[in-house]
Amino acid sequence: MYCASQWAIEGYCDSLAYEIAPFNIKLSIVQPNMEVNVLTHKITSAPPMAAYTEENNPAPLSRNIISGLLDRLEGSSEPTTGDQLHSNEVTSVYPPLSKAMNERLVAETVHAVAAIGGHDNPPARHIVGFEAVSTVKEKLKTVSEELEDFVECSNAVVIERNDETLTPAPTHISIPG
Predict the structure, then answer these.
(1) Phi then psi for 27, rounded to 5 degrees?
(2) What digits encode the pLDDT tens for the residues 55-83?
(3) For residue 48, what is the DSSP state?
């Protein structure tokens, strides 16, 4: 649900950017490092559902990612804050951050936002943090490779104007294998 809501906000902002552009208003989506989002807020976890166990679902689980992040902060093999996210009850935890670490995470994000302020042409998306930049680069690489693999199929459908009617152009697609 979290990912879906973030994509919805992204889509809304992309659409809004086109609506406000004629008024010379620029919109940038700031995508901070996951640690800023997770570690500066209370984390509430619902009981795990059987359909989403690692045995039934090969996708990385947010619960495991966040749990590992919290455990890494504490640096202990003993039961840790992250282990609480695997409880069979609704659990809320606060990340074990020192005040100085919390302030540093927020300050780094504020600095990243201020760095694009005042530009005539700010980015549509401002990626904050080394890990976030690496993740976005990997995603763009994957999308680009997939596009190249299927570019012939993608370009096969062409609409031609013919006497005020739109008709599909003949397609010639060779499917390997």
Answers:
(1) -125, 130
(2) 887 776 777 778 877 777 766 666 677 78
(3) P
